[in-house]
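Hello, quick one for you while I still have it in my head. Could you read through the record and tell me how the tokens relate to the sequence? No rush at all, and the record is pasted right below.
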Amino acid sequence: MQTRALGRTGRTVSVIGLGTWQLGADWGDVDEADALAVLDAANGAGVTFFDTADVYGDGRSESLIGRWLREHPGSGVTVATKMGRRMPQEHENYSLEHFRAWTDRSRANLGVDTLDLVQLHCPPTSVYSDDRVYDALDTLVDEGAIAAYGVSVEKVDEALTAIARPSVASVQIILNAFRLKPLAEVLPAARAAGVGIIARVPLASGLLSGRYTLDTQFAVNDHRSFNRHGESFDVGETFSGVDYETGVRAAAEFSELARAAAPDATPAQVALAWIAAQPGVSSVIPGARSPEQARANAAAGSLELPDGFAASVRDLYDREIRAQVHARW
């Protein structure tokens, strides 16, 4: 497993991390024993970075990680959580008072005195330019409630605004073979500033695994059923904003490219390794609903791809995906 510096946090983490939205909610049911087994498997395979949020299962994901941390003292795992979506998405709610309440709840859920990394959870665009927001976050650092802070963004412009702030440690952004726009400006700017990049939705909600067809049925409590058109949150979080039919077709072509590039790897592993190879990426955070998935994802952290594969990804994106997503985020 490769390791990378996590921006301005002063921490080093595995290049393949673990996203834990699946362990909280919105991806179908995952029971407690299975969730803990996923955490075990990921860490056992070299993963030292878990990403969560206070709204994943209304704190369930954080609480499960907290239990796991208590059972594995000295694991060396860095936990990043997110805050800001427990209230209506209005600028005025991003205040020191609310930050304290949210971080206090997350610290209790995780069973820690100081949170390793707290990220604003895709707030309204205007929040990224508000000095008062960063002053409030700095106060939490000074008080010892959080060790570092970053942002999770939907749009490239939001990322660039945050990167310019001297105390922002990391930016989390959607980056995958169906979402290439961050490569042009965000990753170079982050590298220049020493800001970490956490790549989320790396498999385009599973599309890039190549396992889904037009006949695939998702559970009613899976966002891939209920958020295909942005009914509950930004549509870009579901299949990277690509319509399902296009996504299935493009994913089939990606799978062919992946198998040619790395015959002994799965398309999902190739998709993760391609992101990890992008200069400036600190950690890629695929989710997993089983120990087997967690171990398979982690194996991508040591996979090298041949020259020319990146050009093939770009060609596929330009032909099949760009028109749907490039101008939107």
